[in-house]
Amino acid sequence: MKQLEMSNLLQKLSNLGLETLGYLSSKFSQDFITTMEGLCTTLLELKGEATSVAIAEEILALYARAEPEQKKEFFHFLHEQLGSNEEKILAAIEVYQQAPSEAAAQDLARACEATRRELLHMLNTAPGGTQALIDMREELQQLMRDDPAFAILDSELLNLFQSWFNRGFLKLRSIDWNTPALILEKLIQYESVHEIQGWPDLRRRLATDRGCFGFFHPAMPDVPLIFVEAALTRGISTNITELLQQETPDEQDER
Fold first, then answer.
1. Which domains does the chain have, with CATH numbers?
2. Cβ(190)–Cβ(150) under 8 Å?
C-alpha cells in the first residue's frame, strides 16, 4: 500500500475517534495481498460500525485499483482461507445428533456458512458497496473459465444478491425525458434487444405517446435494474421496427 493511501485510511479512522490505529497499522504492508488479508481479517474482528464501514470502503477501493493478477490473488484468498470451519461443522453435527432440535439445526446452518459470507455482508455496508460487489462478481465470472474452483464463491455472491434484490425491495418509477441524464444513459447502455441509437432515438421512445418504467433498488438509486418500454397505439402493432421509427406527436408538433 502506498504511504499516501495508508495515511488517508488512518486519517479516516482517526477522525472517527477510534482506538485501534496502532492495531491496524501493524497489519499494513506494501504487498497488495498481505494488505488485503490484514484489512479483511481486521474487518471481521472489529465490532464498531463506523470502523467497519471505513475499512470496508478501503478494501473495495484497493480492489478497484488492483491489477487483474492481484484481483485473482484476492479471490484465491477468499476461496481458500475464508471458507467454512470444518471443526465447527463437525461439532455442530455432533450436538444435533445427540439432541435434535430447531435451535441445534440453526446452529448447524450457521456453522456451515463460510467466513467470507460475513465479510461480503460487511463490504456491502460501504458506500457504493452493492455496485462494487456486482462488478466484482462480473470479474470473477471471467476468471471462472480458467479456474472452476471460483464457482463456489460465485454461487455465494449470487445467493446474497438474490436475497438483497428481493422484489419487495424494488421500487417502480416512471422514466421520462426529465429523468436525470445518468439514468437515461443507462437506458441507452442496457437496451440490447432493440438498441437505442443515441439521444434522439431515446427522446423518441420517451415521447408523450410512449411510456417507460423501471425497477430501482434503494442501494442503487441511479441504476434501472429492470425497465420496460410501452407505446400507445391505435390497435395492436404488428411491426416493432415501424413502431420505433414512426413519428411521435411531439415530433409532429415541432414540424
1. 3-85+111-164 (1.20.140.90), 169-254 (3.40.630.180)
2. no
